[in-house]
TrEMBL record:
GO cellular component, one term: cytosol
Species of the source: Arabis nemorensis
Catalytic activity reported: isopentenyl phosphate + ATP = isopentenyl diphosphate + ADP
Gene3D superfamilies: Acetylglutamate kinase-like (3.40.1160.10)
Record site: Transition state stabilizer: K27
Cited InterPro entries: AceGlu_kinase-like_sf (IPR036393), Asp/Glu/Uridylate_kinase (IPR001048), Fosfomycin_R_FomA-type (IPR024192)
Binding site residues for substrate: A96, H101, G202
GO terms under biological process: terpenoid biosynthetic process
Every Aspartate/glutamate/uridylate kinase domain range: 14-298
Protein name per UniProt: Isopentenyl phosphate kinase
One Gene Ontology term of the molecular function aspect: kinase activity
Keywords, comma-separated and alphabetical: ATP-binding, Isoprene biosynthesis, Kinase, Nucleotide-binding, Transferase
Length: 330
């Protein structure tokens, strides 16, 4: 059952953020988190979300025992005198990176066929992997004092039909935001009406959330500066600073002016990536932009990502900002 959000409710959502798997994990090292990037991203999110003056001290919310320590880090006594921090309403969605993709690609979960033992086993293995990453991201944000709640699509009622969202109960997401929490969703293995099962990518989740929650803007944090006219590892790759989406859903590059403006942007997808990589990201971002919502694709853990998260690019994009803006051509 979909939640029918009122217009006033919808306008209260400030931003949906996608933490790209390649930015928060070491994608060539199986199930390895990029700790430094994740720590910076968590700090930047906190700075972007705080309304008013920031408190002098961060009171962390991860009271679990940390690896290598016998003690639980807890600051309960300090909370009594601590002023409540007001956060603007954000939703976080993250990709899997080096978590989940290996299990999904080896077993063929994304292709469906739950009747096959290898697919069923892979479905379970994929969910174990991606939910373990979700927990670590929730913990990293909680250590920055952000009241995060992990939400996995599969148990929250998300399902697909040929890999597109068929149903999603957003009531839990909405109630959590309304209660002052920050939902953290992720790409997940889900049931599919046609295929039996598949992988629901974080990019598709963001598009669905944007359609219903109507945030002011959406930020994709990636491991590269933005969208290029070809894989960024190739020589002479050009960063596309602005892409305009037309009424019919088509899009064109408006900054910089390319020599061959009708040339399709080339993308690369890692062999183990079961969600489509940058091509899916651009397609989903274009559909979000068509709703009148600006989308910023930018490298995580940089000054450019902080400015995007802060919402500083909504009127005029500064010349010194490096990233890609995708917006509706009015």
């Amino acid at each position: 059952m979909e939640l029918n959000l009122s217009e006033s409710w919808s306008r209260s959502i400030r931003c949906i953020v996608k933490l790209g798997g390649a930015a928060i994990t070491r994608k060539n090292e199986l199930e390895t988190i990029h700790d430094e990037n994740l720590e910076i991203v968590a700090c930047q999110l906190r700075q972007a979300m705080i309304e008013g003056s920031a408190p002098s001290k961060v009171i962390g919310m991860d009271w679990s025992k940390k690896p290598g320590s016998s003690q639980i880090s807890c600051h309960v006594d300090e909370l009594g005198d601590h002023e409540s921090t007001e956060f603007s309403r954000f939703v976080v969605v993250h990709g899997a990176g080096s978590f989940g993709h290996f299990q999904a690609s080896r077993s063929g979960v994304h292709k469906g066929g739950l009747e096959k033992p290898i697919v069923k086993a892979g479905f379970v293995a994929t969910r174990i992997s991606v939910t373990s990453l979700n927990l670590e991201i929730v913990r990293a944000l909680a250590r920055e004092g952000i009241p995060t709640i992990g939400m996995s699509p599969f148990p929250c009622g998300w399902s697909t039909s040929k890999r597109d969202v068929a149903s999603a109960d957003l009531s839990t997401v909405a109630k959590s935001i309304h209660s002052g929490f920050v939902p953290v969703l992720h790409g997940d293995a889900v049931l599919d009406n046609i295929l039996g099962c598949t992988i629901l990518s974080g990019d598709v989740i963001i598009r669905h959330l944007a359609e219903h929650l109507k945030p002011e803007y959406v930020v994709f944090l990636t491991d590269v500066l933005g969208v290029y006219d070809r894989p960024p590892s190739e020589p002479d790759a050009v960063l596309l600073k602005e892409i305009a989406v037309e009424e019919d859903g088509g899009w064109k590059v408006v900054n910089p002016v390319l020599e061959h403006t009708d040339k399709k942007v080339e993308t690369s997808v890692a062999a183990h990536d079961t969600t489509g990589g940058m091509e899916t990201k651009i397609s989903e971002a274009a559909m979000i932009a068509k709703l009148g919502i600006d989308v910023y694709i930018v490298k995580a853990a940089t000054t450019h990502s902080q400015r995007a998260l802060n919402g500083e690019l909504r009127d005029v994009v500064p010349e010194d900002w490096l990233g890609t803006v995708i917006r509706f051509s009015k």
